[in-house]
């Protein structure tokens, strides 16, 4: 496409990060522009709305000090694009895809529209291959399947950043370790968090198979809206052009949605629930639906979006809308975190709707599904008994009830609370059997007799025991 070599000088007014330009109806919607002020300083921007009256431009940098009388706008590119290359693996970029690791810019093999291309629903393959995260609670009870979108619901002050780094470090598709890559996009980070992720990826060697996009809290809000799209464009390129199985981790989607609300307010849009724009569902769907497996393509894109729920409210618009679009949720629990359990993932409100597709005989292990169900039931029973004990004390409990109470403690202490260990699915099932074997065989009603005969009485190795000893 031949771009218009034209300048637009009738800048009407500025509202926060938005610039309103009159007589610019021929600017393409979504195009990238340069804004030049009277001193010759250049700022970047993107056209987000065009009408007969004016064009609205989101400015990538600060608009403070921009003189309307001397400002001019010129077209750079017809649509926001990212130069992509396989050499991006092992690199760090800012939210706009500019290198921030001190190395030269990537030599682009292609320049792709960051909004992606619609995936033909008829071309989608059924997700049914297990991804091992190395975290027992996820792998055993909330299994992640290749091509799935499975969000993590957390809260303010909870260790979701540490959890994200652990997943990025440990995740793999068994049998495909060589062509597995992680695209990590973080939005609204403090400088301390930028340092943490940078050092963590470098210290553990995870950077060698990762592409990082880091958007800081003091960067313009509009950049936060582009960061996940940059990451997903990179992921789609690596997956469908080079055959990688790509895990995309997006954190924190709450910061993204708040930037969306800020931009909507500057555009004077009619707000929806809690001030968020009414199109937030569509906007989030545009991100989440860029995951999947395509027939005839060797690669895949799997997503783990992470969001912190304001006031731990799972009915808040951000987790609420996310739950409609995605295929389950992993819930980080404040009570478990207060006990010192890490990672503090509560399996009770958590769910993976695609788990059944990717586990079982020939995929993980034949007893996987039954173990998952039995752990869930036994833990629920133990939690109910804890509430009863708080009222009546332990004197009224049967011996079996006391075993369930002990099971709940062991489950939290040794199965959920694995710390920074990297457990294979075999290791996780071994720990599960070690804890379940403390219950009488008659209580294991969700497990087949063959599995009980084979695994009941499994002893946990010392390396799988937490800081407390099992009695």
Automatic annotation (TrEMBL):
HAMAP family: ATP_synth_B_arch (MF_00310). It comes from the Bacteria. Residues 14-70 form the ATPase F1/V1/A1 complex alpha/beta subunit N-terminal domain. It comes from Deinococcus cavernae. The keyword Ion transport applies. Residues 134-352 form the ATPase F1/V1/A1 complex alpha/beta subunit nucleotide-binding domain. GO terms for molecular function: ATP binding; proton-transporting ATP synthase activity, rotational mechanism. Residues 358-456 form the ATP synthase A/B type C-terminal domain. Keywords: ATP synthesis, Hydrogen ion transport, Ion transport, Transport. Produces ATP from ADP in the presence of a proton gradient across the membrane. The V-type beta chain is a regulatory subunit. Belongs to the ATPase alpha/beta chains family. Pfam families: ATP-synt_ab (PF00006), ATP-synt_ab_N (PF02874), ATP-synt_VA_C (PF22919). NCBIfam families: PRK04196.1. The gene is atpB. This is V-type ATP synthase beta chain. GO terms for biological process: proton motive force-driven plasma membrane ATP synthesis.
């Amino acid at each position: 496409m031949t771009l218009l070599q034209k300048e637009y000088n009738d800048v009407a007014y500025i509202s926060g990060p938005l610039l309103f330009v009159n007589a610019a109806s021929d600017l393409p919607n979504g195009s990238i522009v340069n804004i030049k002020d009277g001193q010759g300083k250049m700022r970047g921007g993107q056209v987000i709305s065009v009408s007969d009256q004016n064009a609205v431009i989101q400015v990538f940098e600060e608009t403070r000090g921009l003189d309307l009388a001397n400002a001019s706008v010129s077209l750079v590119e017809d649509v926001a694009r990212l130069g992509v290359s396989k050499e991006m693996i092992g690199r760090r970029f800012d939210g706009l895809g500019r290198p921030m690791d001190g190395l030269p810019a990537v030599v682009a093999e292609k320049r792709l529209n960051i909004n992606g291309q619609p995936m033909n629903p008829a071309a989608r393959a059924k997700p049914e291959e297990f991804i091992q995260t190395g975290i027992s609670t996820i792998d055993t009870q909330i299994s992640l399947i290749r091509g799935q979108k499975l969000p993590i619901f957390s809260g303010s002050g909870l260790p979701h950043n540490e959890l994200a780094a652990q997943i990025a470090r440990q995740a793999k598709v068994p049998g495909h370790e060589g062509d597995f890559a992680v695209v990590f996009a973080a939005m609204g980070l403090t400088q301390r968090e930028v340092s943490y992720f940078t050092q963590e990826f470098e210290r553990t060697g995870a950077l060698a198979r990762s592409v990082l996009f880091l958007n800081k809290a003091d960067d313009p809000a509009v950049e936060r809206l582009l960061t996940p799209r940059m990451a997903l464009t990179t992921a789609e390129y690596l997956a469908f052009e080079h055959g990688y199985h790509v895990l995309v981790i997006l954190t924190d989607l709450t910061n993204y949605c708040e930037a969306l609300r800020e931009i909507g307010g500057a555009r004077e849009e009619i707000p929806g629930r809690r001030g968020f724009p009414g199109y937030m569902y569509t906007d989030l769907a545009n991100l989440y639906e860029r995951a999947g497996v395509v027939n005839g393509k060797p690669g895949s894109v799997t997503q783990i979006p992470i969001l912190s729920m304001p006031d731990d409210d799972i009915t808040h618009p951000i987790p609420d809308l996310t739950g409609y679009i995605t295929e389950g949720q992993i819930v980080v629990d404040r009570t478990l975190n207060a006990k010192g359990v890490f990672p503090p993932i509560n399996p009770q409100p958590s769910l993976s709707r695609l788990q059944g597709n990717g586990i079982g005989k020939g995929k993980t292990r034949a007893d996987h599904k039954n173990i998952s169900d039995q752990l869930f039931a036994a833990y629920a029973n133990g939690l109910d008994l804890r509430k009863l004990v708080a009222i009546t004390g332990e004197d009224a409990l049967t011996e079996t009830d006391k075993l369930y109470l002990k099971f709940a403690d062991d489950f939290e202490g040794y199965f959920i609370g694995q710390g920074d260990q990297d457990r294979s699915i075999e290791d996780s099932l071994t720990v599960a059997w070690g804890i379940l074997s403390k219950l009488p065989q008659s209580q294991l009603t969700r497990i087949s007799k063959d599995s009980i005969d084979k695994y009941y009485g499994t002893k946990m190795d010392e390396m799988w025991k937490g800081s407390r000893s099992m009695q």
